[in-house]
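Sharing a chain and its predicted structure for anyone who wants a worked example. Both blocks are below, sequence first, tokens second.
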Amino acid sequence: MQLPTLIQFQVLCLIPPEGIGGPDLRDALKKQRVMGTGRAVFYEMMDRLRTANWVTAEPEVVEVDDDTYKQNRYRLSRDGALAVRRFQEVAREAANARTDLGWTMADDWRMA
């Protein structure tokens, strides 16, 4: 199974079980300072996640202040949940390997 990139992993982790609308997800990413907030960057990322079958996108109509607009509601797919778990496992294994070698984060900072 292909692993998500770090940014993809962060995006996947921000999608709640009930799903989230595109604008709300963009706001969450902005607050977390995960990626640029430009619409093109966001929708390209979401398209890559859909192509990988890690998220689904269902169109929905939302009403705000008597105005209606269309947006996608993103949900984590089963494959997406597996990709998140696999990423976590690989990260844990890497951290354990560093510890087994006697390296710590403090060692990295002293070397900088």
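Comments welcome. The longest strand covers residues 55-64.
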